[in-house]
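[agent] plan:
  1. take the single chain provided in the ticket
  2. run structure prediction with default settings
  3. attach structure tokens to the ticket
  4. add a short note for the reviewer (M.T.)
[agent] executing step 1
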Amino acid sequence: MPLSYTHGTVHEHLACRRDAVVFDVSHLGTVRCDGPGAYAELQEAFTNDLDKIAPGRAQYTHLLTPEGTVVDDLIIWWVAPDEFDVMPNASNTAGVLGAVSGVDVTATRCVLAVQGPRARELAATVDPRFGEVGRFRVTRFDVHGVEVRVAGTGYTGEAGIEISAPNEVAGDLFERLVEAGIEPAGLGARDTLRLEAALPLYGHELSRTSTTLEAGLGWVLGWAKPSFRGRAAVEAERERGVRRHLTGVLGADRRPLREGATVLADDAEVGELCSGNFSPILERGIGLGLLEGDLTPGRAVRVRMRDREIPGVVTALPFVTKAS
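[agent] step 2 finished; step 3 output follows
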């Protein structure tokens, strides 16, 4: 899982926006939950409401602390009526296993994310069924006698699929996708792509010191279901109002904005950037922060990094919409 391959992060980023790339995202975890009690257990543990979907679908959700902060953000693949693949960030797999019954199968499989406006078209030349997996749909089928699981998910802001394949066939599958014209891309481009798309990342915009509502992700809170872990704390936060808001900052020039930089509005510190980098599409520095105050798009700000300040402006999110 390199940060980049031969041509570098900017090249790989633009290839994803304009064509198709494949990422090795096997650092994600997989906790397999099955049996007649799996549905009820997941409903109680995670914020989103599985009743909004059905078997054969995927759902983005959060695992919270009892205090309402974020343990992890993850995707649930509802593979069959009593079978779920819960996909946490790998460093948080233990936390998920502490919240639900399940088996950690992370070490048995690789996950390949094919992303970009031509992702399904080119993946279908390897196996036509790859091209048939719709957005947030989940399926499984045999490829050369080995079962793979495929979901219409990803974290780049572009269309695409993610393929969970057993270790013994994953290398060959990766090579076949590359031979089909899909360029390999590293984790550097995956980060700049998700930042342009304003997708919060665990350890940055989401953490045990921030909340779902602060990140602007209230839609993943299943208020219609009886309960979920951390619900009382989140209800209290909703009633009193959110102090910080996920805010986008667009720099005035090509200098990358950086995580940890202080943001100032009218000489007052309003918070720090949780993520920052250079946008290959906008050719400007961009950053996301959990910032205080009424910072509407167009508001002038300054970003203080070490011994210099970069002028910027608050901007609507996402920074970039998908090419397709």
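[agent] step 4 note for reviewer: Residues 167-179 form the longest helix (13 residues).
[agent] ticket updated
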